[in-house]
Amino acid sequence: MIETKNLSHSYRAGSAEQEKKVLKGLNLKIEKGSFTAVLGRNGSGKSTLAKHFNAMLLPTGGKVYINGMDTLDEKSVFDIRRTAGMVFQNPDNQMVAAIVEDEVAFAPENLGVEPKEIRSRVRECLETVNMTKYAETAPSKLSGGQKQRVAIAAVLAMKPEILILDEPTAMLDPMGRSEVIKTVKKLNKEQGITVVLITHYMEEAAAADRVVVMDGGSIALDGTPKQVFSNVEMIKALGLDVPQVTLLAYELNKAGIDIAADVLTVDECFTELAGLLGGNGK
Amino acid sequence: MLRDVVIGQYVPGKSPLHRMNPPLKMILMIAYIAVLFVIKSAAAYALFTVCAVTLIMISGVSVGMILKGIKPILYIVIFTALLNIFMTTGEVMWSASVFGLTLRITKEGVTAGALLTARLIYLVTGTSLLTLTTPPLQLTDGIERLLKPLNKIKVPSHEIAMMMTIAIRFIPTFSEEADKIKKAQTARGADFESGGLIKRARAMTPLLVPLFISAFRRADELAEAMEARCYRGGGNRTKMKEQHITAFDIKAAVIFVLAAVLILLAEFWIEI
């Protein structure tokens, strides 16, 4: 479980002219086993927020608790990082090893896990992300989506309870994007891992249980994808887009056509439209 | 073009040399060099040659690959050999006067030249046998293992090996990036091909500056990703791939030592 209490963060804190407040008194509680997407335009503070969840950044005001552990407590830094694993945006810049299986072994090696146990964790994690075939390949030979799946496996090898993904799909093609999101969803559903997904793709956010929209260092909207995306005007004012089908439904509604305005997926939209046209959905 | 760069020159194989424990292989390599620099007599060299040829045959590495390793040092070998032949004083075998300079070839000079040539060639042959039969990553692991006793005098063995591993890992990434930057700069009119050496070297600036900047950015992000996975230096780390000494390694080491002893006996007891 992640909890922030009145969390604020400033870069270059201390010098009055250069101080830049990025987070302004955030109160957020993310439940165990949930899938939360954090949205927001560039500079809204979403990445800064994510880096507080595994003590990569420390609050300049307020507190962050990960499973009750205070991130300001120096002694628990490694326990926090093991509990909340983080996957970064650029797949090339987060790989240490020259072979996939060494990459996955890196984290448990750092934790001092027994060699045999590392072996079995590596096998297991590569299987989870469906990359067993590539165990002995060089990362440079993989596609972007494959690299990101290896990066996820490399974090899973710590057996984390929370998985934080900081725009993991920003540098991928649509194929790679769907591979990564599928893997993340599977981890959340099958292994009960708490997922925090920082993204600026609305379609990805629509797959979450909860969407938090950040703006200017504060939380602007918070709720289920349906609740959040039905505020089409507000989302647009925050510099974001709603999923295309939601926009369609919204525009139809505005034009006086009676259709549910909170559709999120193509399938939902299709059913709604089919119902409207009096067809049987075929 | 840059993508074809191969780090090290490992030739995959299943020979006994390939299967040997890397740290042990490195220790034996040091012994090989030590023996090479001790021996002087023809008998010892003859024996050494037999052993070296046997090693090459066992390794399954083609002679061509070995010769390729010798090629870069060819000029150094010829140069030092000539220096030795002409500059050593002793019993004159041949002399001539060219432009008022007296050139002399002495018997001692020829011996010294031949000795040095053989030494340099065997040195390179031996070390390339090591790199040809050991994957680069196992080499870095081996170096870490060998340097471990030096931790006591604050030699950061793990950090040294880690740096080498990361360097190996990033070579393809950087060569790909250099390719990309080169194309981008060419598209903007940069000229990398024409002109003399100095002009071409200068033309590299628009390639190197972005490459360095990106290297620093990557370093930052990599450090962050490593910290996020609880990296804290070599202290309590374990290794998934442990390099164990097997019965096979012990056998190989014994054979190696016996061969070395034989060569040294030939050096010190047989008079020619």
Question: Would you write up a description of this structure?
Answer:
The complex is a heterodimer of chains A (282) and B (272). With 282 residues, chain A is α/β, with parallel strands linked by helices. Chain A has 2 domains: 2-225, P-loop containing nucleotide triphosphate hydrolases (Rossmann fold), CATH 3.40.50; 243-282, no CATH class. Chain A has helices spanning 46-52, 77-83, 100-110, 115-128, 144-156, 174-191, 202-205, 225-229, 232-237, 244-254, 266-276, and strands spanning 2-11, 20-30, 35-39, 61-66, 69-70, 84-87, 162-166, 194-198, 210-215, 218-223. Chain A has a 6-stranded mixed beta sheet, with helices on both faces. In chain A, strand 1 and strand 2 (20-30) form a beta hairpin. In chain A, helix 3 packs across helix 4 and helix 4 (115-128) packs across helix 5 (144-156). The model of chain A has no long low-confidence stretch (mean pLDDT 90). Chain B has 272 residues and is mainly alpha-helical. Chain B has a domain at 7-134 and 242-272. Chain B is built from 11 helices and 2 strands, in the order H-H-H-H-H-E-E-H-H-H-H-H-H. In chain B, strands 1-2 form a two-stranded antiparallel ribbon. In chain B, strand 1 (92-98) and strand 2 form a beta hairpin. Chain B is flat. The N and C termini of chain B lie far apart (54 Å). The A-B interface holds A 54, 56, 78, 81-82, 85-86, 88, 90, 92-99, 101-102, 105-115, 118-119, 122, 138-140, 154-155, 158 and B 136-137, 165-166, 168-169, 172-173, 176, 217-218, 221-222, 224-232, 236-242.
Helix-and-strand structural type of chain B: mainly alpha
The arrangement of helices and strands of chain A along the chain is EEEHEEHEHHHEHEHEEHHHH
Query: Which outline of chain A best applies?
Result: globular
Integer-rounded radius of gyration of chain B: 24 Å
Quick summary of this structure?
In chain A, 38% of the residues lie in helices and 21% in strands. Chain A is built from eleven helices and ten strands. A two-stranded antiparallel sheet of chain B has the order 1-2.
